[in-house]
Each structure stands twice: as structure tokens, then as C-alpha cells.
């Protein structure tokens, strides 16, 4: 790539050639038709895995214990205290009912919502931005916040907001195409 050749020949920046070859390969793959969707999907799966690891080693009885105990109270028919709203607690209870009543399941289940949000934010950005920029933004987002830290409801809200906005904008753009 001519840009890489110019940068490699610059005196102020010396980087091994294999790095530029790697970057050039990544850029050519990003322009491939299905690579970016597959890569973002794999990134989302990696986010779920990292969330499971985080929930396995997190020892925080206040944050993790609060959300876990509230979901268990719903499953057992007990009273709930809607500290962070009622819907996240019912969603967490549903996840514990489906996947099992363990601490790790809660982290993986909420990580699933975050991964869904990561995938759909890429699809959303693809509607309004060029493919390479949308891909780069999701990579930056993943490096800044790759997995859930606490089992908070913001990850679930993120997924619902992004999916809703994506389908709204996708329907709006399809509607505009039909009227033209």
C-alpha cells in the first residue's frame, strides 16, 4: 500500500515491516464482504467469554450479590426491592431460570446482552457511517470496554436501546427508499 510505504520510509517513525504487512492485511480484510460481520460476531462471543471469566473471579458481595439475590427472590416468590428497576431483576431471574442458578450464569447472561449491543451498534453505525469507520469504532469500543464489570442494568438497557434504534433507523431508511 503506498501510504504504508511512505510511512515506512519516514525517519521519524520506525516500525518493523511485519506490522505494516499485518495492518495492510487487516485493512484488506475489512473491505471484504462478510469478514466484518463475522469478526464483530466473534468479538461479541469473546465479550461473553470475558464476562464469564469476570463473573467467575469477581468477589464483590454487594454488587454481584445484590443483583443475584434479587433475581433469586423473584424465582422463589419472595419480595423484591427495586433498587435499579423491576425489569432488570425480572430479566436476571429469567436468565437464572433458563441457564441455572449460579453466580457465573448471571455474568454470562448479562454479558450476552452487552454482546448483543456490541453487534447491533456496529450494524447501527453501518447505516449512517462507512463500513471501515463503523468497524474501527466497534474495535475501539471493545478495547475500551470489552466485557461487563458489574451485573448492572445499563448493559441490558444498552442492548435494548441499540437494537430498537437500529430497527427504527433501518425501517426509516427503507421507507425513504420506497418513496423515492
Summed up:
The chain is mainly alpha-helical and 180 residues long. The chain is built from eight helices and no strands. It has helices spanning 2-9, 17-30, 35-57, 63-75, 87-99, 103-128, 131-144, 154-179.
Cα-atom radius of gyration:
21 Å
- State the helix count: 8
Mean pLDDT: 83
Name the helicity range. over 70%
Question: What is the SS-derived class?
Answer: mainly alpha
Residue ranges: pLDDT <50 for 5 or more in a row? 6-10
- The topology string of helices and strands comes to HHHHHHHH
Distance between the termini: 39 Å
Percent strand: under 5%
Total beta-strand segments: 0
Largest sheet: none
Global geometry: globular
What's the arrangement of secondary structure elements?
Layout lengths: L1 H8 L7 H14 L4 H23 L5 H13 L11 H13 L3 H26 L2 H14 L9 H26 L1
Helix pairs in contact: 3-6, 3-7, 4-5, 5-6, 6-7, 6-8
Folded structure, characterized:
This protein has 180 residues and is mainly α. The chain has eight helices and no strands. It has helices at residues 2-9, 17-30, 35-57, 63-75, 87-99, 103-128, 131-144, 154-179. α3 (35-57) packs antiparallel against α6 and α4 (63-75) packs across α5. It is globular, with a radius of gyration of 21 Å. It starts with a helix and ends with a helix. Mean pLDDT is 83; it is low at 6-10.
Amino acid at each position: 500500500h503506498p501510504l504504508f510505504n511512505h510511512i515506512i520510509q519516514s525517519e521519524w517513525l520506525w516500525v518493523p515491516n511485519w506490522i505494516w504487512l499485518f495492518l495492510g492485511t487487516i485493512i484488506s480484510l475489512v473491505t471484504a464482504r462478510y469478514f466484518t460481520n463475522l469478526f464483530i460476531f466473534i468479538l461479541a462471543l469473546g465479550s461473553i467469554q470475558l464476562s464469564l471469566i469476570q463473573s467467575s473471579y469477581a468477589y464483590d458481595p454487594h454488587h454481584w450479590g445484590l443483583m443475584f439475590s434479587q433475581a433469586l427472590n423473584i424465582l422463589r416468590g419472595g419480595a423484591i426491592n427495586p433498587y435499579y428497576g423491576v425489569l432488570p431483576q425480572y430479566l436476571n431471574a429469567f436468565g437464572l431460570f433458563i441457564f441455572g442458578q449460579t453466580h457465573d450464569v448471571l455474568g454470562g447472561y448479562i454479558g450476552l446482552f452487552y454482546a448483543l449491543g456490541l453487534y447491533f451498534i456496529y450494524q447501527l453505525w453501518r447505516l449512517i457511517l462507512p463500513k471501515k469507520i463503523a468497524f474501527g469504532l466497534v474495535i475501539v469500543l471493545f478495547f475500551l470496554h470489552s466485557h461487563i464489570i458489574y451485573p448492572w442494568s445499563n448493559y441490558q438497557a444498552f442492548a435494548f436501546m441499540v437494537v430498537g434504534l437500529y430497527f427504527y433507523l433501518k425501517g426509516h431508511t427503507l421507507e425513504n427508499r420506497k418513496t423515492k
